[in-house]
Amino acid sequence: MTQDPVRVEIELDRSLLLLIWILSIHSLAACLLIVSAIPLWLKVLTIIPVLVGGAHACLMWYRQPVKRLSWTSGHWQLIYAGQREDVALQHFFILGRLLLLRFHGSRRRHSVLVLPDSTSPANLRRIRVTLQLG
After folding, report:
1. DSSP 36
2. At what angle do helices 16-35 and 40-63 cross, to 10 degrees?
3. What's the CA angle centered on 65, arms 23 and 83, to 5 degrees?
4. What is the reported pTM?
5. Beta strand pairing call for 109-114 and 84-95
6. Are residues 59 and 24 in contact, defined by beta-carbon separation less than 8 angstroms?
7. What digits encode the pLDDT tens for the residues 32-75?
8. Which residue blocks in the chain are alpha helix, DSSP H?
9. Using DSSP, how many helices (H) and how many strands (E) does the chain show?
10. How many CB atoms within 10 Å of residue 76?
């Protein structure tokens, strides 16, 4: 008698906490540069990369490449809009209800940040238990 493999699939939503963090940090950096006592040309040269970085981070937040995580008996998959990629969990970091998962795929490495508002509390518990089981 064989036992069916345990499967955990977690749906990920966009995190509003992450968007607020991105906008706050980039806005604060731009404001500090504006009120600083450096020459105007240097302010412009430093504010432009801050604003471009903020726009890029917001675009990445909006696109949200990873839609779901799937774990089946020790094997992880990242599920994008229409495709799945088998990945290996390199390491993870747990800080309260924040999870950072680092995966290594066939072509590149992936980082997945799971915040409290990006998935349900039950799914967050499920991920933590899955990580503790190995």
Report:
1. S
2. 180
3. 170
4. 0.79
5. unpaired
6. no
7. 999 999 999 999 999 999 999 999 999 999 988 888 888 887 78
8. 16-35, 40-63, 121-133
9. 3, 6
10. 21
